[in-house]
Specification:
- The chain is of the alpha/beta class.
- About 30% of the residues lie in helices and about 15% in strands.
- It contains four helices and four strands; from the N terminus they run E-H-E-H-E-H-H-E.
- It has a four-stranded parallel β-sheet with strand order 1-2-3-4, with no helix packed on it.
- Helix 2 links the parallel strand 2 and strand 3.
- The longest helix is centred in the middle third of the chain and has 11 residues.
- InterPro entries: DUF72, UPF0759_sf.
- This is DUF72 domain-containing protein.
- It holds the Pfam family DUF72.
């Protein structure tokens, strides 16, 4: 729990929560997959939505995740930007894709903490 007036500078979470090999290691062995995220939220204050790198979830899906996470005040989401933005367009001429991402991720409301841009290994620095 955060102390009143104290700013938390570090949140520890994982990239996603839907991993079968966690069953019996992190998740109780009899926990149904549809309950994994609710269980995860009880144990971590943040998560990276990695699925958005491959396919953009709907705004409604983001809102459902936010609703589940609302059981833990202060829970935060990091959303990974689409590979279309980072790997295909290489950050150029990606305004429309970025707008779609931000509109959809807006379903998280104030729980959206950041958007992560994972660049390809060969991406050259241009300062």
């Amino acid at each position: 729990m955060d102390a009143p007036g104290r700013v938390q500078m570090l949140w520890i979470g994982t990239s996603g929560w839907s991993y079968r090999h966690w069953l019996g290691r992190f998740y109780p062995p009899d926990l149904a997959p549809r309950q994994w995220f609710a269980y995860y939220v009880q144990h971590f204050p943040t998560v990276e939505i990695n699925a958005s790198f491959y396919r953009l979830p709907s705004r409604q899906q983001f809102a459902r995740w936010a609703q589940v996470a609302s059981s833990r005040p202060g829970f935060r989401f990091a959303v990974k930007a689409s590979r279309l933005i980072t790997h295909v367009r290489r950050l150029a001429d990606a305004e429309e894709e970025l707008r779609h991402l931000l509109e959809a991720a807006g379903g998280l409301g104030p729980a959206l903490e950041l958007v992560l841009f994972q660049l390809p290994p060969g991406f050259a620095r241009d300062l």
